[in-house]
Write a structure and sequence with these properties.
- By secondary structure, this protein is mainly alpha-helical.
- It folds into 2 domains: 101 residues, no CATH class; 359 residues, no CATH class.
- Helix content is 70%, strand content 4%.
- It is built from 21 helices and 6 strands.
- The strands form 3 sheets. A two-stranded antiparallel ribbon has the order 1-2.
- Strand 1 and strand 2 form a beta hairpin.
- Helix 7 packs antiparallel against helix 19, helix 15 packs antiparallel against helix 20 and helix 19 packs antiparallel against helix 20.
């Protein structure tokens, strides 16, 4: 009896908060998973070293390094590392001619870690409300892929959505406190500042220096390698305007870059208006000014639309708390700023007139409305499940366009994530996507009603990304897709897991 009591007294004590939580896994469980990963890594390293394949060895090292970090790091660091990887992605070779993203591997490994934890704790039924419409959308996309013209691109479209949902799942499962939420937002904003600073440098150093940098050996680490090689071969970059470079960061597509900057700017602007400390307000003001200048220099209409949506959300959330005089003052200042920007910036005004004339059919180039009309006309052929993801481009006829300032005839993209989704996944998939967006917006709005600046910023950033995709299909692009997933995860994290402790 005495010996039993002694053993019980000497046993390690588990904190009550963790012992009572159904989501806690002992460190020994994680240690076993790490041992298995290390053993597999050792076997793989030995095998590929014996084969003498350098590319395969790099692939295996990158894969296992990302996976081991996702399993070894504390949950708090998993979220912060993921937030830091979103703007940069980090590419490495995979299977010869293919490439993989370090951010994608990391988030998938982190999601597997959380799923293993759910299985171990038998927590199978508790999910966020966005999961059901997301699953229905993926099911509709899978059904559409069976009859797609190009089944490979249809399945790749499903693959492209995985990091979006995986990021939302990981962030939503881990973030449990206002402190971690704030730290995650700071890392995302810092990533946006890095992208903005890089874009500003690109616009200053000139086209020849930018091309030389893109042809260097380090460029494929930060730029999508296959797409970079393709665009360098035919020089079909949309960030070249009248022979000069507009900011594009580490994005191949300048429109995607503009939407990313607009989302981060919306996030920072909402936080700026609610800042209480002077040093915090000054830092956010500098950040907002840098992001705003870079966004204006992109000359991308989709980025301006995204920013307008983000600023509108911030204004609608903050305006009810202001006096009518303050409201009128802000409105007048906004009007003066917009009009002044177009009057003082001749290139910006010319770009606006060009876009308007193109959509009105007054120019040779085909406008977005004409592309959408040609796509929607195909919907009656497959109304329920559509033609498969990434297959809308095969339905668009050859149309006149612009490439590096020269007129060309090519097959344009769908130029709208929502039109593309309607055509590619039909009424069922499009309805599931709208359901998904509605669920996210409702939860983000409920969070923002607390008038917490960060929550308002998250709502504004989500609005910026989703609205910007009205005129471009960029919901699942590398950086923007994972940024959207992170924002969705932050939206659902606090109300769902605020009562639990993870660290």
């Amino acid at each position: 009896m005495t010996e039993a009591v002694g053993r019980a007294a000497s046993a390690p004590k588990v904190p009550r908060s963790r012992a009572s939580s159904p989501r806690y896994i002992a460190d020994s469980t994680r240690a076993r998973a790490i041992v298995v990963l290390c053993a597999l890594a050792t076997i793989a390293f030995s095998a590929f070293a014996a084969l003498g394949s350098q590319d395969l060895l790099i692939t295996v090292v990158a894969l296992f390094l990302s996976a081991i970090l996702a399993f070894v790091l504390p949950f708090r660091m998993v979220v912060l590392t993921l937030a830091a990887l979103i703007p940069l992605q980090i590419y490495f070779p995979f299977g010869g001619s293919l490439n993989m993203r370090g951010a994608f591997v990391f988030v998938i490994a982190a999601a597997m870690r959380l799923l293993f934890q759910r299985i171990a704790t038998r927590n199978w039924w508790r999910w966020h409300t966005w999961v059901i419409p997301a699953a229905l959308f993926m099911l509709a996309a899978l059904i559409a892929s069976f009859t797609a013209f190009n089944r490979y691109t249809a399945l790749k479209g499903i693959y492209d959505w995985l990091p979006v949902f995986a990021t939302a799942f990981v962030v939503g499962e881990i973030v449990h406190s206002e402190r971690l939420l704030r730290a995650s937002i700071i890392v995302l904003i810092v990533g946006g500042v890095v992208q903005a600073a890089l874009g500003l440098i690109e616009s200053v150093i000139g086209l020849s220096n930018v091309v030389d940098a893109l042809q260097s050996g380090i460029a494929p680490i930060f730029f999508q390698p296959n797409l970079l090689r393709q665009r360098l071969a035919d020089f079909s970059f949309n960030w070249v305007l009248d022979g000069r470079v507009v900011p594009f960061g580490t994005f191949i597509n300048g429109i995607d870059y503009a939407i990313f900057i607009a989302a981060i700017l919306s996030l920072a602007f909402a936080w700026l208006l609610g800042a209480r400390r002077r040093d915090e307000a000054i830092a956010l003001l500098i950040v907002a000014a840098l992001l705003g200048i870079v966004l204006l220099r992109t000359f991308k209409g989709s980025g301006m639309i995204a920013l307008a949506a983000g600023i509108a959300v911030v204004a609608l959330m903050y305006f009810p708390r202001l006096s009518w005089r303050a409201q009128m003052t802000i409105v007048l200042l906004a009007i003066v700023a917009v009009v002044g920007a177009f009057i003082l910036s001749e290139p910006l005004a010319q770009r606006l007139f060009f876009l308007v004339e193109r959509e009105l059919g007054l120019r040779t180039e085909t406008g977005r409305t004409a592309i959408w009309a040609s796509l929607i006309a195909q919907l009656p052929q497959r109304p329920l499940f559509g033609f498969g993801l990434n297959n809308a481009i095969s339905l668009v006829p050859v149309l006149p366009s612009m490439n590096g300032g020269a007129y060309v005839f090519n097959t344009p993209a769908a130029e709208s994530a929502y039109v593309a989704t309607l055509i590619e996944t039909g009424i069922v998939g499009f309805g599931a996507l709208i359901w998904f967006v509605g669920v996210v917006f409702v939860q983000a709005y409920l969070n923002a009603k607390t008038f917490a600046p960060i929550q308002i910023g998250v709502l504004a950033a989500i609005a910026a990304i989703l609205t910007g995709n009205l005129t471009v299909a960029a919901l699942t692009t590398d950086q923007n897709g994972m940024l959207l997933g992170a924002l969705i995860g932050l939206t659902f994290a606090i109300p769902y897991f605020s009562h639990e402790s993870r660290e």
